[in-house]
Structures are given as C-alpha cells and as structure tokens.
Specification:
Order of helices and strands: EHHEHHHH
Strand order of the largest sheet: 1-2
Strand content: under 5%
Structural class: mainly alpha
Shape: globular
C-alpha cells in the first residue's frame, strides 16, 4: 500500500461529500435521505481512501463494506446511548441512530457499484 494523490478520486470524494451534506441539510425523510444517502456514503468512504492510497480495489471495497456494516450493527446496540451521545447532533449524523436492514442492502449495492465501475475502468 503506497501513498499517492489521485486527483480524480479527490474530485469524486469532494463531490460526494458535498452531495451528502446537501442531503443531510435539506432532506429529512424519504428514500434519498435514508437509502440513497447510505449508498453514496460507502462510495464516499471508498473514494476518500483511493484518493491517497494505492490499494487493491477489492480489498478496499471489502474493508469499506465491513466498516459500514460495523457502524450499522453498532446502531443496533444503541452505541450513542452507551457513549452518552444520544443528544449529540453531529454524532447522530455521522454514526446514525437506528439500525435498518435496508441500510445493509444500500451499502452492499454501493460497493457493488464501485467494483463494477472500477473493473470497467481497468479494462479501458
């Protein structure tokens, strides 16, 4: 694993981060907020690390997916309450506050999308 800045991943990361902020600010309910935002979140995490690490795409995709799943399962045990952060808006926004099985599906589809795009780009 080597450090190297990849400008196209930096651009995608910044674009996805901006979209995620806009979703969080302006959409309080619905499919885009609760499902599509999770789909984009794993892509954001993946592209963030690809921005400066030369790493195998499959390994990073699996690590990203495991990280997202871990956060979701922490929601199941109500980690915010355990940490005394249940009223902290930033913690709720970053970690989420409720477990949803559909979030696991959104994360999986986001990573699948990443891998499909990565493999298509490697062929060209």
């Amino acid at each position: 694993m080597k450090l190297k800045v990849h400008a196209h991943y930096v651009f995608i990361t910044l674009l996805l981060f901006t979209i995620e902020i806009l979703i969080a600010m302006y959409l309080k309910t619905g499919f885009i907020r609760h499902t599509f935002g999770d789909f984009l979140a794993v892509i954001l995490i993946y592209t963030f690390f690809k921005s400066f690490l030369k790493i195998n795409s499959i390994k990073l995709a699996l690590a990203t997916l495991l990280f997202a799943y871990s956060i979701e399962f922490l929601q199941m045990i109500n980690v915010l309450k355990i940490l005394g952060l249940e009223d902290n808006i930033a913690a709720k926004l970053i970690l989420g506050s409720t477990f949803q099985f559909t979030d696991l599906i959104a994360y999986s589809l986001g990573i699948l999308c990443v891998l499909i795009i990565e493999f298509k780009l490697q062929k060209t």
